[in-house]
Specification:
Blueprint (H helix, E strand, L loop, with lengths): L3 E2 L1 H4 L2 H4 L3 E5 L5 E5 L10 E8 L2 E7 L1 E8 L2 E4 L2 E3 L5 E4 L4 E7 L2 E8 L2 E9 L5 E10 L4 E9 L2 E2 L11 E6 L2 E6 L5 E5 L4 E13 L1 H5 L5 E14 L4 E8 L11 H19 L8 H11 L2 E4 L2 E4 L2 E2 L6 H13 L4 H12 L25 H16 L2 H20 L6 E2 L6 E2 L13 E2 L2 E2 L6 E2 H21 L4 H13 L4 E2 L4 E2 L2 E4 L2 E3 L8 H4 L7 H14 L1 E2 L2 E3 L16 H7 L5 E2 L3 H12 L2 H6 L4 H4 L11 E2 L7 E2 L3 E2 H20 L1
Helix pairs in contact: 4-5, 5-18, 6-7, 6-8, 6-18, 7-8, 8-9, 8-10, 9-10, 10-11, 13-15, 15-18
């Protein structure tokens, strides 16, 4: 799928600054920005390095402002919005086109009759970004000038002039910079460029997306140095931006290596998809590339970045995303590494929900991540037949069940009366609907949530099946699964014709219409009758389904919030009260297929995601949208489970069509 924009988008600042690109390096670092070239988020930068792979991310190079001297005229390539609203320079007006080659962003600037191409890529496995400028057309040599801005702050923060001071020194073919106080340092080099070290603070970069989010939205940045080079038609230069750290000799940083690796990703996906690949629309191939961006190295193995630019690796997101990111793309070795990584952190029968960005003690505030872990392992085993892995990890599975039956953290415990899993304590958010405003948990869902028990039933059934391979007795797991299956009948709400969202909560039964009940249909083991499955799908289709995902709450509910906007408290209050979640479209499509037996019709629900690939995070799927039309995209520009669940659902349904 070619994603390309001409002047109608590129020169329209409102359109160009809302379309964001991202390139990643496989260790948690990234480069990200807008088509327009101006900074719109505190997270935007040409080099955001992962200091403690894959976390500890710092902005080293926020941007480069370039200009072209040609034919006696100056043509800016960069753009900035300042705190007073001024746009200067306005280099976006010189963008003739923008497109992605793989995940690499490419601009073509028209400077009178000259065309200058700019492209960006990263070295896989290194904190290094490369920006290449090539003269595609010119009747005479032109001069490129670069103003390079540097930093060294945490990517969640803001920069103020002079704090901390930054030291800049000349190096071979470039310069080195370091913020005082032990902050990260970086190096900028480019053959043939004449550099002038002249540090100057620029005040008041206005960050429009942060302003919308009710956060500090003005940054200062240090222009550390300027460089110039003269290029004729057919000539190019490449600026290397890298963290000042030992080079890994195994890393091939070339543009050709970047493209070849992405070609291998596509080839692996095609092989895994088999005959289904022949039916794939181009946007599905694009999703396979997007999936690769979330898989990163951790010291102990592989993990998954939940979303760019601000999330780290979360247990829940990782396990929900793993089958789509790794198995659907033909990388079972990645899946096994992730499963083994998280198995090493099992504690009291739970995997961590979050590895904090500072690399401190993992947090275990989740009831569902561990259950998703079991299902991810079962999916891996089903796809690969890797009995040895099951035998190796089965002790962790046995520990998970044992702790859940006798009780673990946060009141998580199987109820001996009905076999269902109860969970929750005041002030703690344990399900995926985990927003919290100060000390207030917006959707606490204390009691027995419907999707948790759908997961519990499926986890028990999966462990029972794997027990035989591991040489363990399965009878107790079968008994627990049968008990949970029987208990699931308690979720049916005959008065409304769909499932309660939570039962046995502090206020009794919660009949709010939410999408969580879809997992009781889409997962392999279901306790619902065929008529109940269809009723669940129908009510969700009519009240929750949108083009880009499912609402988290029905619009007729008094608590419904149709727009995700405002300051953090306002946004968190809307997060699971009507906001549309893209990841839910995959489970809905699978549930629809189960209820109606028509995989082609179910696939059609995924089609609008093609448009989403070019409207927010370019070439990927974002986190959320407004519940109200036109369902404006919000949140992270690239979200792992959004990409993974769409890819997994498409693969499952299309393989079924191919087999029929």
């Amino acid at each position: 799928m070619t994603i390309r924009f001409g002047r109608a988008v590129c020169c329209d600042l409102a359109a160009a600054e809302r379309r964001e690109w991202i390139v990643t390096n496989g260790i948690g670092g990234y480069a990200s920005g807008t088509i327009a070239g101006l900074l719109a988020r505190r997270y935007h930068g040409l080099l955001v390095a992962a200091a403690h792979r894959p976390v500890g991310r710092v902005i080293l190079i926020p941007k480069i402002d370039e200009s072209v001297s040609y034919g006696g005229a100056e043509h800016p390539l960069g753009s900035n919005r300042w705190a007073d609203g001024t746009i200067a320079p306005a280099g976006h007006l010189n963008i003739e086109s923008f497109h992605l080659e793989g995940t690499s962003p490419v601009w073509r600037f028209a400077c009178a009759d000259a065309i200058v191409e700019k492209r960006i890529w990263m070295a896989h496995g290194a904190n290094a970004t490369f920006v290449r400028y090539g003269v595609e057309r010119a009747t005479a040599p032109l001069r490129l000038t670069f103003d390079v801005f540097v930093d060294g702050r945490d990517h969640h923060g803001s920069t103020r002039a002079g704090d901390p001071p930054v030291e800049v020194s000349i190096e071979d073919d470039g310069f080195r910079f370091a913020a005082a106080g032990g902050a990260r340092a970086g190096v900028v080099t480019c053959d043939g460029v004449s550099w002038t070290i002249d540090p100057v603070w620029y005040y008041g970069f206005d960050l429009a997306r942060e302003r919308e989010r009710g956060l500090s939205h003005v940054d200062d940045h240090l222009r550390a140095a300027s460089g110039t080079i003269e290029l004729a038609q057919g000539q190019s230069c490449t600026i290397e931006l890298r963290a000042d750290e030992p080079a890994d000799p195994r890393v091939d940083a070339s543009c050709e290596s970047f493209a070849a690796r992405e070609a291998d990703v596509i080839a692996g996906w095609r092989k895994a998809a088999g005959p289904a690949a022949g039916r794939a629309p181009a946007w599905i191939e694009r999703l396979a590339l997007a999936a690769d961006q979330f898989v990163v190295d951790r010291a102990a193995g592989k993990t998954v970045i939940a979303g760019y630019p601000w999330f780290e690796d979360w247990g829940r997101d990782t396990m929900i995303a793993l089958p789509g990111l790794a198995l659907a793309t033909g990388r079972p070795d990645v899946a096994r590494s992730i499963l083994e990584t998280f198995a090493g952190f099992v504690d009291q029968g739970m995997i961590p929900n979050r590895f904090p960005d500072a690399g401190t003690t993992p947090e275990y505030n989740t009831v569902d991540a561990t259950l998703w872990y079991v299902l991810a392992l079962h999916d891996y085993w089903t796809a690969t037949g890797d009995d040895e892995c099951v035998r190796h990890l089965f002790p962790a599975l046995a520990e998970i069940v044992d702790w859940h039956v006798r009780g673990t953290r946060f009141g998580i415990k199987a109820d001996a009366a009905d076999g269902l899993l109860a969970a929750g304590e005041s002030g703690v958010q344990l399900t995926w609907m985990d927003a919290k405003v100060g000390d207030l948990v917006v959707t606490p869902r204390i009691g027995k949530p419907v999707e948790i028990n759908a997961l519990w039933l499926n986890a028990l059934a999966a462990i029972a099946e794997m027990a035989q391979t591991a040489g363990a007795a399965r009878a107790e797991y079968d008994r627990l699964a049968a008990h949970a299956r029987s208990g699931m009948a308690r979720f049916w709400n005959p008065a409304f014709g769909f499932c309660f969202d939570v039962i046995d909560g502090p206020s009794g039964y919660d009949a709010a219409l939410r999408p969580n009940q879809l997992l009781a249909v889409s997962l392999a083991e279901s306790a619902l009758t065929n008529a109940q499955m269809r009723a669940v799908v129908d009510v969700c289709a009519r009240a929750l389904v949108t083009s880009y995902g499912l609402r988290s709450l029905a619009p007729d509910d008094p608590a419904y919030r149709g727009r995700y906007e405002g300051d953090p408290s306002s946004r968190d209050g809307a997060y699971h009260q009507g906001t549309v979640w893209a990841w839910l479209l995959g489970p809905f499509a699978l549930a629809h297929r189960r209820a109606y037996g028509d995989p082609a019709q179910a696939l059609a629900f995924l089609d609008p995601l093609e448009d989403a690939l070019s409207g927010y995070g370019i070439g990927t799927l974002g986190e959320i949208c407004d519940g109200d039309a036109p369902h404006a995209p919000r949140g992270c520009i690239a979200q792992a489970w959004s990409v993974a669940q769409a890819l997994q659902a498409w693969t499952t349904l299309t393989k079924e069509l191919c087999a029929s």
